[in-house]
UniProtKB/TrEMBL annotation:
It comes from the Bacteria. This is Intracellular septation protein A. NCBIfam families: VC0807_fam. Keywords: Membrane, Transmembrane, Transmembrane helix. The chain crosses the membrane at residues 76-96, 108-125, 166-186, 192-214.
Length: 224
């Protein structure tokens, strides 16, 4: 499951990143996107519900969190839109297939969708998707961030290369994450695979965010 908590810091050289904020975000993701879905699954299967139906209900906490975040911030961010759409698509296909293993692997749809969007932005976009994601989330904390990023993009070639490289790396990571998710889902029992894959997603996204923060900061300093 893609972490649904709103990033607390934008991956930009101009946006502050506190360790406490990152820790709170990670803990929140572990609770909402890993612990609660697993608890829902265990409780419902313990009550005799089928694996497929229980796995469908386990998507409720992350989906509700996206909506809560949208109400809280008075806007539905693009990542949230993709998460909701892919959750709906995954639920529909898993329920129609009746395959518990597919239900566990359904979040690979999110990884594939993000990977395609990231890769596509390098081909057809004026700016890579990572640029827009950083600007969107960072503007909530730094209203001047969009302007600062535009100046960096126009004047700093290292900044441009870094964001393009980060977008390409993220696309590759999403592809690998989806491949590993499908492999584990069809290899392990659902009760084992579900918590492993939930934590895997959080680790992957947290790692990508941290790497992006460090690389973009270095790129911005190099352009001064």
């Amino acid at each position: 499951m893609t972490p649904t908590t709103t990033p607390t810091a934008a991956p930009s050289a101009t946006a502050p990143t506190g360790r406490g904020a990152v820790l709170r975000q990670t803990v929140g993701s572990l609770l909402v996107d890993a612990a609660l879905p697993y608890l829902v699954y265990v409780v419902l299967t313990g009550q005799g519900m089928s694996d497929v139906a229980a796995l469908a209900w386990s998507a409720l906490p992350p989906a509700l969190n996206v909506l809560v975040q949208a109400v809280r911030h008075r806007r539905l961010n693009p990542v949230g839109v993709i998460v909701l759409v892919t959750i709906a698509a995954g639920l529909a296909t898993s329920l129609l297939s009746g395959d518990a293993r597919f239900a566990v692997a359904r979040d690979a749809i999110q990884s594939v969708a993000f990977g395609l969007l990231l890769a596509g932005s390098l081909v057809v976009g004026r700016r890579p998707l990572v640029f827009h994601v950083c600007r969107f989330f960072g503007s909530a904390q730094r209203p001047d961030l969009p302007e600062l990023m535009e100046r960096q993009w126009a004047a700093n070639p290292v900044f441009r290369r870094t964001l393009r490289r980060a977008t390409g790396v993220a696309a590759c990571v999403m592809t690998l994450e989806a491949t590993l998710r499908i492999t584990l889902a069809y290899t392990l029992a659902p009760v084992v695979a579900l918590p492993i894959l939930s934590v895997q997603s959080i680790v992957v996204w947290t790692g990508l965010s941290a790497l992006l923060v460090v690389s973009v900061r270095r790129a911005a300093r190099a352009g001064r």
